[in-house]
Recover the amino acids of this structure.
């Protein structure tokens, strides 16, 4: 008898088993997610995870709620950064100043990357439905802003700053119940920090972006004018901190304006500003934790 005449079922594990082609794609997708997360952690681009946890701690939320909100923020970050890599895969492959191995792997498995995004989105929606529907605010707002940013806004001078500031606020709302006004103020402060960081980051990437024909704020302004724009963003951030959160923390953040700028060492400048803002943020969180309220000049 010719064995080829015997039909062999593709899946034998029962009606609830995953179709045969899908499981390998999901496993590849998980590897792509892991690559994305590890790369961003190494580049210090997932600092908002610590920010989300610090908001929750400062507001004295229960330990279990802090854990859930932290996990939610982690998944949301993974989704947003994966989508960014998915959109920019061709640009990343052609880059001459960074490792392209992750981008090449993603380019070889685009369907797996798409499945991974769908899985992350489903997990996030399930957590929000089961734990706190208010978490749909950072999920929807953060996803929409970041997807729009990845597709268009990061290549539009000025709008890249607006999107980053709004996205920085939306993403860190994971750390607070939507009914807590102090948590909202803390998230807005982090949004201003994000805008200042982005103003520096576009200067760091200005040469590569210009070579690729992109028109970011850093490309349009150039490094010499761009640093003054970044400092203006830093000043606005400090003023907001003084008015609504804590004046002494604002004094700390103002010291970032004194850091000397070298257009040939933008990455080092970016790191030093982050260190100053980290100290400022710790002061804000400590005040709110012990005082139980915001202590800005305009606050009662």
């Amino acid at each position: 008898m010719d064995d080829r005449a015997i039909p062999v079922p593709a899946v034998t594990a029962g009606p609830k088993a995953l179709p045969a082609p899908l499981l390998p794609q999901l496993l590849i997708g998980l590897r792509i997610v892991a690559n994305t997360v590890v790369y961003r952690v190494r580049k210090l681009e997932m600092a908002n995870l610590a920010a989300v946890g610090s908001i929750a701690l400062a507001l004295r939320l229960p330990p279990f709620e802090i854990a859930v909100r932290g996990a939610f923020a982690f998944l949301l970050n993974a989704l947003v950064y994966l989508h960014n890599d998915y959109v920019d895969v061709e640009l990343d492959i052609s880059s001459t100043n960074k490792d392209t191995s992750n981008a090449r792997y993603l380019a070889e498995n685009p369907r797996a990357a798409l499945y991974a995004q769908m899985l992350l989105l489903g997990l996030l929606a399930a957590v929000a439905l089961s734990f706190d529907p208010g978490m749909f605010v950072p999920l929807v707002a953060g996803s929409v802003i970041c997807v729009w940013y990845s597709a268009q806004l990061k290549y539009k001078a000025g709008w890249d700053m607006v999107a980053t500031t709004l996205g920085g606020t939306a993403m860190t709302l994971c750390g607070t119940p939507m009914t807590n006004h102090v948590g909202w103020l803390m998230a807005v402060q982090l949004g201003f920090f994000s805008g200042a960081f982005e103003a520096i980051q576009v200067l760091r990437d200005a040469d590569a972006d210009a070579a690729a024909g992109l028109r970011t704020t850093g490309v349009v302004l150039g490094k010499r004018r761009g640093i003054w724009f970044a400092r203006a963003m830093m000043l606005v951030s400090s003023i907001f901190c003084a008015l609504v959160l804590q004046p002494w923390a604002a004094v700390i953040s103002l010291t970032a304006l004194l850091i000397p700028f070298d257009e040939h060492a933008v990455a080092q400048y970016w790191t030093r500003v982050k260190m100053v803002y980290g100290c400022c943020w710790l002061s804000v969180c400590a005040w709110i934790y012990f005082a139980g309220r915001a202590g800005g000049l305009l606050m009662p």
Q: What stands out?
A: The chain has 13 helices and no strands. The two ends are 89 Å apart (CA to CA). Residues 183 and 249 are 17 Å apart (CA to CA).
